[in-house]
Design brief:
Layout lengths: L7 H12 L3 H23 L2 H17 L7 H23 L9 H28 L4 H12 L4 H8 L3 H19 L3
Helix pairs in contact: 1-2, 2-3, 2-4, 2-5, 3-4, 5-8, 6-8, 7-8
């Protein structure tokens, strides 16, 4: 499943702008993938600051190679591959893993683990895209409840509304997300 915040033709326009060296193209890809790539890197190296640094460095490398990109999927593929290898190199240099001593079957197992991490990061990226489609108040309730762990009462106090209204907004948000994210 692939949810896109922008229609294909608009995303393609951003790719063209990116390849031409326009800042709006870079901003589009940075906003689109930074969070999911950082989560992906964090799942491998377990260091939030280093994960962010790795992803930023990979974006710098992407910028230098931008003229060789022809499709949006090539950007995503390049970035996940680049981040993956940067994380492996980080682990090797920091001695936080026995990656350099892995046998071929172990490396293949590590690769399949990486694939599941990519799926997880992309699923979360797509879920966040759906959350951003919620009406503002519903989105705020959803984030406060699920991402910040606040109770109906706490949210009601923050938003100056009744806890039952908060509960209803949460259920409407879930219904919308299920319908949009898991069609069928």
């Amino acid at each position: 499943m692939s949810l896109k915040r922008e229609p294909d033709h608009i995303a393609q326009e951003f790719l063209i702008a990116f390849v031409k060296g326009e800042e709006k193209g870079f901003d589009f890809f940075f906003r689109e993938y930074f969070s999911s790539l950082t989560l992906f890197a964090y799942q491998i190296i377990h260091d939030e600051n280093e994960a962010e640094d790795i992803v930023q460095n990979c974006f710098e490398k992407l910028w230098k190679k931008r003229e060789s990109l022809s499709h949006i999927e090539s950007v995503k593929s390049y970035m996940y591959t680049s981040v993956r290898y940067a994380c492996i190199n980080y682990l090797r240099t920091k001695g936080k893993s026995q990656i350099q001593s892995l046998s071929i079957p172990e490396i293949e197992d590590f690769s399949s683990d990486i694939e599941s991490l990519v799926v997880t990061a992309e699923t979360i990226r797509e879920l966040y895209a759906v959350i951003e489609l919620l009406p503002a108040r519903m989105r705020e309730v959803f984030k406060l409840y699920y991402l910040e762990g606040k109770s109906y009462t706490e949210i009601g106090q923050l938003l100056h509304t009744h806890p039952e209204t908060v509960r209803n907004q949460r259920f409407k948000a879930l219904k919308f997300i299920r319908k949009t994210f898991i069609p069928g």
